[in-house]
Amino acid sequence: MDPCGGSGWVSVSGVDARQLWLRFEPYHDVTYFTPESRAATDALGCKGGWMGYFGMRAAPLGAASPELVTAVFYNFAPRMVHRALPDAWEVASPSAFLDARLEGVDGALRRLLGSVDTPEIAEAAALAREAALASPLAGRPLAAANRALPWPSEPHLALWHACTILREARGDGHVAALVAAGVGPCQALALYAREHSLDPAYMRTARGWTVEEWEEVADLPGDLPAVERATDEAARAPWEALGEERTSRFIDLMTPLALRIASANEAMRVNPMALDPVRELAVPGWNT
């Protein structure tokens, strides 16, 4: 369970739902965790990488208040959000942040993938767009806000846009599952860290919680498998609409892309999601 994106093991149209997440998450993550992304937000005048992160991820919502962003992002400590917002909207408008994130994504994908003008990327983009358009939006604010944006014309960017919608839709559903299970933001991180043997100090720093806040919830119980199942159930619709055969084709197309990005993106070597596609997806001959 990623308290921001979610991961699980329920079969969707005969395909493991986690296997889908493992493929579209790395493609989406270039949005924030690459040198190109940081350069684009630094050029706007952002004070640090986290201002850029909150500005780019929240920009589809408009000039959102820190309270709104804290609510929809869920697992960040309020003080961490307040350090970036609303100051980010004084640095640049939401539309400027949207332009900057697309610029960063374009540069990062071209560097990480080499060629982006391939039939495989175009095919993956078409499948991902169909799946993203089939994703329900009710109760999914980040997915809805991203889907309302114009679609990029270039296939590698259209694929990124679709992956972003799918990622945020899954994350919105994951937040709903956590709320329904009565698992709070800091508690979710503590449970996840314990289950995946992640360093509590690293997790606290990554999301802005104090030692005292962490210790208050560190020993609280929580049914993570139930949250995982609910997250996967809420994410079924796009892949059911796509069908088993085309979902499997999407997996085949995304596997080398996810591996290439994950193996080359140094910024994602350690992350709060415990995401390790190089280990989990590696197949013989993928980089030959």
Automatic annotation (TrEMBL):
One Pfam family matching this protein: HTH_67
Name of the protein in question: SalK
Organism (species): Lentzea albida
